[in-house]
Write a structure and sequence with these properties.
Radius of gyration: 18 Å
Distance between the termini: 27 Å
Number of helices: 4
Number of strands: 2
Shape: extended
Order of helices and strands: HHEEHH
Structural class: mainly alpha
Strand order of the largest sheet: 1-2
Helix content: 40-55%
Amino acid sequence: MKIREKVLSLFPDRECINLIKPNNNDGQYQQYHELMNNQIQQEFWDQIKTLREKIIEKATLKKINGITLNMRIFLIILKGCLEEFNDLSPLNISAMYI
């Protein structure tokens, strides 16, 4: 299965959202992570709030092999993924939380 087909099968309900630039000063483009909250346009914050609301509204519980993912399991899987990425090992998500 091609990567595009896999992504489409994993995310059948998807939506694109355009966000304005956080700040109009192009000189600060590479330093967005350093901007203070009051330096970011209010319209950007409004768009982020709308995006969060859409994500929460559409979020559903996920299951792997019949086990519902809770935050603890999610963090175990995330930690396992990071360790395997760092070790350049192939991912085996099922083995990370059993």
